[in-house]
């Protein structure tokens, strides 16, 4: 198989290429909604404060034309404390929760090798690639680690973290009973009874045409009604964030890949969650709830019911990424974890020397601090 690797400018992403990229997303070896064109394009349009990204485009020419098999979105960086040489940084917007390199699962090894060979060649003008929020347990990392050394390229993980994840087929009532503490279950039942004293409580998942402008408006108002609104961090607090969210949701909803879950008392929605599907996975984005009902924990009740309904609603998916940071409230409900990392892909001889020097400097600094603390 002969693959072609091209370095494209942002303006080269024609409607045809965007459609091919969206099709690739459904075949990706490691699903990632944060690298869907439905996410990246509005993020770049409304959230970027720098030059347009570069695109590494990997394709195969066949009888039916050019088929895209891999897409990498990167920002050029002059240098950082972590790696003080010109390098690329994998696309990661202020609202991104994962970075990566989507490649066709049926030819993933060939695509990764073509990408690595390109990065090791003379046409690649940088000394490495920095990946933030990389899926450290991914099949892609296994391929990079095994193929990279053949081209003199090394992979260096410099920070490790974890994120709560749910396996939908294993969720449901037995999961909640076994994983949520007795006190938490009692508290959830107490909160539900208090809501039922106000009016009938209903929970509804919304997909497809149901994720309309009214659904988006309800979510945005609820997100602003909680603590994020008080702190000025809500999406409605910034017009660019709002525009990004609306356009992103429209894109995912247009392909049936947006999933909202609403908790209501009577005819009033009091909590809403926004989630997106990519390949065989789901990705939680944000949650909103109304402060008038804060004592009844509507956000938690919404997540509990989503967990309860996950086997029937999302049972065919491999996993549900919480998108949450460590020590989030969701950690008590979703007990499984997936490892994430910040990792550096070093591609040049000068890069190896610089990385070694930085690593040595860190070790010396750590030793000096240790010696100082013990004396």
Number of strands: 12
* Secondary-structure element order, N to C: EHHEEEHEHEHHEHHHEEEHEEH
State the helix count: 11
Q: Which structural class should the secondary elements be placed in?
A: alpha+beta
Strand content: 25-35%
Radius of gyration: 23 Å
Helix content: 25-40%
Strand and helix layout:
Layout: E1 3-9, H1 15-27, H2 37-46, E2 54-62, E3 65-77, E4 87-90, H3 108-119, E5 128-135, H4 139-147, E6 154-166, H5 173-179, H6 182-198, E7 201-207, H7 213-225, H8 227-231, H9 239-254, E8 258-265, E9 268-278, E10 281-289, H10 298-314, E11 319-321, E12 336-346, H11 349-374
Parallel strand pairs: 4-5, 10-11
Antiparallel strand pairs: 1-2, 2-3, 3-4, 5-12, 6-11, 6-12, 7-8, 8-9, 9-10
Key structural traits:
globular, twelve-stranded mixed β-sheet, 375 residues, alpha+beta
What does this molecule look like?
The chain has about 375 residues and is of the alpha+beta class. The protein has helices spanning about 15-25, 35-45, 110-120, 140-145, 175-180, 180-200, 215-225, 225-230, 240-255, 300-315, 350-375, and strands at about 5-10, 55-60, 65-75, 85-90, 130-135, 155-165, 200-205, 260-265, 270-280, 280-290, 320, 335-345. The protein has a twelve-stranded mixed beta sheet, sandwiched between helices.
In short:
The chain is an alpha+beta fold and about 375 residues long.
């Amino acid at each position: 198989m002969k693959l072609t690797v091209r370095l494209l400018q942002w303006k080269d992403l024609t409607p045809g290429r965007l459609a091919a990229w969206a099709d690739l997303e459904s075949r990706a070896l490691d699903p990632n909604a944060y690298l869907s064109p439905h996410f990246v394009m509005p993020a770049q349009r409304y959230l970027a404060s720098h030059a347009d990204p570069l695109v590494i485009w990997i394709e195969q020419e066949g009888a039916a034309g050019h088929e895209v098999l891999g897409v990498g979105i990167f920002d050029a960086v002059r240098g950082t404390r972590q790696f003080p040489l010109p390098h690329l940084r994998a696309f990661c917007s202020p609202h991104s929760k994962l970075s990566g390199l989507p490649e066709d699962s049926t030819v993933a090894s060939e695509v990764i090798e073509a990408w690595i060979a390109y990065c090791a060649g003379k046409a690649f003008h940088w000394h490495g690639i920095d990946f933030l929020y990389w899926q450290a347990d991914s099949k892609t990392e296994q391929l990079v680690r095994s193929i990279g050394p053949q081209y003199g390229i090394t992979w260096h993980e410099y920070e490790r973290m974890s994120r709560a994840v749910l396996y939908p087929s294993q969720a449901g009532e037995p999961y909640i009973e076994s994983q949520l503490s007795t006190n938490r279950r009692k508290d959830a039942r107490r909160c539900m009874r208090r809501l039922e004293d106000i009016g009938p409580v209903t929970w509804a998942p919304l997909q497809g045409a149901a994720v309309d402008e009214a659904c988006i408006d309800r979510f945005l108002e609820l997100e602003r009604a909680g603590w994020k609104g008080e702190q000025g961090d809500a999406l409605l607090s910034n017009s660019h964030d709002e525009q990004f969210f609306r356009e992103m949701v429209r894109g995912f909803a247009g392909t049936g890949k947006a999933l909202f879950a609403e908790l209501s008392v009577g005819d009033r929605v009091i909590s809403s969650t926004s989630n997106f599907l990519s390949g065989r996975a789901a990705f939680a984005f944000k949650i909103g709830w109304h402060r008038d009902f804060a004592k009844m924990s509507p956000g938690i009740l919404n997540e509990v019911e989503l967990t309860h309904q996950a086997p029937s609603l999302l049972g065919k998916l491999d996993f549900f990424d919480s998108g949450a940071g460590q020590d989030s409230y969701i950690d008590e409900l979703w007990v499984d974890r997936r490892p994430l990392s910040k990792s550096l892909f070093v591609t040049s001889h000068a890069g190896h020397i610089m990385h070694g020097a930085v690593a040595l400097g860190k070790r010396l600094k750590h030793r000096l601090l240790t010696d100082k603390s013990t004396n």
